[in-house]
Specification:
The chain has 10 helices and 3 strands. Helix 5 packs across helix 8, helix 8 crosses helix 10 and helix 9 runs antiparallel to helix 10. The chain has 234 residues and is mainly alpha-helical. The chain has a 3-stranded antiparallel beta sheet with strand order 1-2-3.
Length: 234
């Protein structure tokens, strides 16, 4: 299930959304050129840095402190599919949330959403995954982007999303945003439970960060929004 576009216009060009996509893309190209694993291991966020129980065979000694890697990890990705999917979601849903919040407020809120997502992922990992799970680097913009999705659900539940469905063949269908985002959220909950049981299989993708970001976005967006987004165009 892949979103292709929504039916909600914006008042102005989504400068911050585009800038975030460009920044993430530049960082990914740098990772890809210099070695993805090397940069993820150095700049990724390790939950174990808060519990001081990192497994030395997995966590490099020159890792960043947690208060730096919590930010750097937001701009790292583990594969072309990871960066591509995240940037597609940010492009489709971010512009309307930016339109509602305003550019400067949207950027600050986006970063805080990423930190809130990381906080929940850290709590869950330290409580349920043990030292092994806490020693897997967490990377990706998807926690912050999940905040955007939660905000979009609150602001524009009546919007429609053109979606590609993959089941032997490819089918295209417009579905309500509330349905698309609801299905997405359920998948994150499922993947999050799997990643707790099998932390090494998560590939550094923090699934509970998606849940934390989504809830943060849904709860806080009306507190920071400066205006309602435009209504769907059809």
């Amino acid at each position: 299930m892949l979103p292709l576009k929504d039916n909600v216009p914006t008042r102005t060009f989504p400068l911050v959304t585009v800038a975030l996509i460009v920044a993430n893309s530049i960082v990914w190209l740098w990772e890809w050129k210099t070695g993805v694993d090397k940069e993820v291991f150095h700049y990724g966020y390790y939950p174990c840095t808060l519990s001081h129980e990192c497994l030395t065979q997995y966590v490099p000694s020159d890792r960043l402190p947690w208060y730096e890697s919590a930010f750097s990890g937001m701009f790292l990705h583990g594969s072309w599919l990871h960066i591509g999917g995240n940037m597609l979601f940010l492009w489709i849903f971010g512009n309307n949330v930016e339109d509602a919040l305003g550019k400067v407020r949207f950027l600050a809120w986006y970063l805080v959403a990423g930190l809130a997502a990381t906080a929940l992922q850290t709590f869950v990992t330290l409580q349920f995954s043990g030292a092994l799970g806490a020693s897997i680097p967490n990377v990706g913009a998807s926690g912050a982007i999940a905040g955007v999705l939660g905000a979009y659900l609150v602001l524009l539940p009546q919007a429609r999303v053109l979606t590609a469905f993959f089941f032997i063949l490819i089918f295209f269908r417009e579905i309500p945003a509330v349905l698309f985002l609801g299905i997405w959220f359920l998948f994150q909950a499922w993947d999050g439970g799997w990643s707790i049981l099998h932390p090494e299989a998560g590939g550094g993708v923090a699934f509970f960060a998606h849940i934390g970001g989504f809830v943060f976005g849904a709860v806080t967006v009306m507190l920071v929004a400066q205006r309602r987004p435009l209504r769907p165009s059809w």
